[in-house]
Specification:
The complex is a heterodimer of chains A (99) and B (388). By secondary structure, chain A is mostly helical. Chain A contains 5 helices and no strands. Chain A has helices spanning 6-20, 41-48, 55-58, 64-76, 86-96. Chain A is globular, with a radius of gyration of 13 Å. Residues 5-30 of chain A have low confidence and may be disordered. With 388 residues, chain B is mostly beta strands. Chain B is 12% helix and 33% strand. Chain B has 6 helices and 24 strands. In chain B, a hairpin with a 5-residue loop joins strand 4 and strand 5 (106-109). In chain B, 46% of the residues are buried. Classes of the chains: A mainly alpha (99), B mainly beta (388). Chains A and B meet through helix 1, helix 3 and helix 4 of A and helix 1, helix 2 and strand 1 of B.
């Protein structure tokens, strides 16, 4: 196994990413942003793409409780999600990427 | 090179940095011209242009079913499933450590592995989540259709031969393999899947150095990967750097949480996935094909993990009647088997189905109970065609 230094960067990048990627660039290393547009989409993008592509998120169709469990697991893995942004991110996922 | 400088070098190589640069550009230069309104297909991965990109980071690529036409899947068509990406390993710097419950901890380089007796075998690998997209309601995870499966000719050495060099103690009951992949944060769990020593000592379980006559490509775990034939693909750890013998199963999240399905005897309990299911797919004709009425050949592959495929039955009338297909092509202990059936297509619409049975008494089911994480999809495959 290896450990990268992304974690420290992940603490400062979400704001940059959330603003910069608001209109939707960079879902992954190549394509566009596949996440459905919404006022909170930039928040979701900024929380997720420090570690993985937006495609990983956009292809899911999950109910609220499953999304909550995933978001909490990702917080445990160091995702840059705060108590303030968590409900907004869950709301986006449950409504835009629901079953 | 210390861990930090190595990590920084790695970081500079990766798309993440590209994204940061793009973000900075955006902050200074306004919004991108190609603001998105919907999903855009990611660009192909070089060398894997025909594959469907399920995720560009980590890289996960699916083979379109129509491309799985040969007994051995060429490397450029072979699916890729990565829980985490990993840095390219310089073969001259490669080191494999064997430690834990052993009398003689050892460190092996690539040349040390090459000096052991070589074995070559044809093995099918299938991702545990292959077919996840067909589960209803949807299950979380990569939404694979049928193509997270492929068969390659692997050359390498027996895992048992490597373990014997380290002289496992009587307390060594499980092998805990670790690879050189990189969890993106310190908190994210390392990707480790253990297996019992009984499977490790089987002569088919191997450390692969070549895939289809080439050094194992990086995307497939090269220069050195584990190969645990018949088991879900996640057992075959990529970029193998360490084999730790332990007195118990690994307890990390990729054993304790992921790669588990409900038990048949008590669905409130789960078990850790080992063998893949008994399964077949119709490769040709493809779903939606427009055929010329008259003689046709229906063909596909069937595989059964720890079982052996004993029969494939095919229906050309939506499952009302079945005929035995011929098992053709080469037969290998842990590889899929090609099957085919001659059929005279009358004008009109037809639903073609294939149903495999194996030596363990397993048959492909017509339906499958919900699997919360979307594993074990082996429901009878049906394709709809039209003949005129």
């Amino acid at each position: 196994m290896r450990r990268s230094v992304r974690a420290s960067l992940a603490t400062v990048l979400p704001a940059v990413l959330a603003v910069g990627f608001g209109a939707g660039l960079a879902g992954g290393q190549t394509g566009g942003n596949p996440l459905p547009p919404d006022e909170h989409m930039p928040l979701v993008l900024g929380a997720c793409i420090p570690c993985h592509s937006a495609e990983m998120v956009a292809q899911q169709r999950l109910d609220r409780s499953t999304w909550e469990a995933i978001v909490d697991r990702m917080i445990g893995y160091g995702a840059p999600i705060t108590p303030e942004t968590r409900p907004l991110i869950v709301q986006y996922l449950a409504t835009r990427l629901g079953p | 090179m210390n861990d930090r400088s190595r990590a920084l070098r790695e970081l500079s190589r990766r798309a993440f940095v590209v994204q940061v640069g793009a973000a900075a550009t955006l902050l200074g230069g306004g919004l991108p011209a190609r603001a998105q309104t919907g999903a855009a297909a990611p660009s192909p991965v070089p060398g894997k242009e025909k594959l469907i990109v399920r995720s560009p980071r980590p890289i996960n690529l699916e083979t379109p079913l129509r491309e799985l036409t040969t007994d051995v899947t060429p490397n450029d068509l072979f699916f890729v499933r990565n829980n985490y990406d990993g840095p390219v390993i310089d073969p001259s710097a490669y080191v494999l450590v064997v430690d834990g419950e052993v009398e003689n901890p050892i460190t092996l380089r690539l040349d040390d592995l090459r000096r052991l007796e070589a074995v070559t075998q044809t093995v099918t690998l299938e991702c545990a989540g292959n077919g996840r997209s067909f589960h209803k309601p949807p299950a979380a995870g990569l939404q694979w259709e049928h193509g997270a499966v492929g068969t390659a000719v692997w050359r390498g050495v027996r895992l048992a031969d490597v373990l014997r060099l380290a002289r496992p103690k009587a307390t060594a009951r499980h092998v805990v393999p670790d690879g050189n992949d990189a969890p993106p944060t310190p908190q994210a769990p390392d990707f480790i899947r253990s297996h019992p020593i009984s499977k490790a000592m089987e002569p088919h379980t191997m450390i692969a150095l070549e895939m289809n006559g080439q050094p194992v490509p990086h995307l497939h775990g090269g220069p050195v990967r584990l190969l645990v034939p018949g088991w879900v693909g996640s057992a075959s750890i990529k970029w193998l750097t360490k084999l730790t013998l332990a007195d118990k199963e690994w307890g990390g999240p990729f054993m304790a949480r992921s790669y588990r399905s409900p038990r048949v005897d008590d669905p409130s309990l789960t078990y850790s996935l080992q063998s893949v299911e008994c399964k077949s797919v119709v490769v040709a004709p493809s779903d939606g094909a427009q055929l010329t009425a008259g003689p046709q050949t229906i063909t596909g592959f069937a595989w059964a993990g720890e079982g052996t495929v004993v029969a494939v039955d095919v229906s050309t009338d939506g499952g009302q009647t079945w005929k035995a297909a011929s098992l053709v092509g080469p037969e290998h202990r842990y590889a899929w088997r090609r099957w085919e059936l001659a059929w005279t297509a009358a004008p009109g619409a037809h639903t073609l189905m294939a149903r495999a049975s194996d030596s363990l008494g397993r048959h492909q089911p017509a339906s499958r109970p919900r699997d919360p994480q979307g594993y074990r999809w082996n429901v009878i495959h049906a394709v709809r065609v039209n003949a005129a």
